[in-house]
Write a structure and sequence with these properties.
Low-confidence stretches: none
Order of helices and strands: EEEEEEEEEEE
Number of helices: 0
Shape: elongated
Number of strands: 11
Oligomer: single chain
Radius of gyration: 14 Å
């Protein structure tokens, strides 16, 4: 059974930094794109950053220049380094990945959410 396990998060003051990790566990053929989404109260879930298996990245405008997504394919892990945090970054952050199973079916998986709270 494939799972995405998220670690990191918590509380930061404005201007601070936090790092999120998301590790895929279980048996599968490959991990394709991986990404981070967030959802603030009353808002829809939105993409923060994504990275392909080849390392190409995509960022939301709000994340550009402050957040960095990276992945370690050997560890099946994706990271989100968040710098210069702002109160508006406060949200529940979710890890997401497209994973191809041993039977060569591709599914989209979500990790558990982790709360990020940035105080002013």
């Amino acid at each position: 059974q494939v799972q995405l396990v998220v670690s990191g998060g918590g509380l930061s003051q404005a201007g601070g930094s936090l790092r999120l990790s998301c590790a895929a566990s279980g048996t599968f053929f490959s991990i394709n794109s991986m990404g981070w989404y967030r959802q603030a109260p009353g808002n829809q879930r939105e993409l923060v950053a994504a990275i392909t298996s080849g390392g190409s990245t995509n960022y939301a405008d709000s994340a550009k220049g402050r957040f960095t997504i990276s992945r370690d394919n050997a560890k099946n892990t994706v990271y989100l380094q968040m710098n210069s945090l702002k109160p508006e970054d406060t949200a529940v952050y979710y890890c997401n990945a497209d994973i191809t199973t041993i039977l060569k079916n591709t599914y989209n998986y979500w990790g558990q959410g982790t709360q990020i709270t940035v105080s002013s």
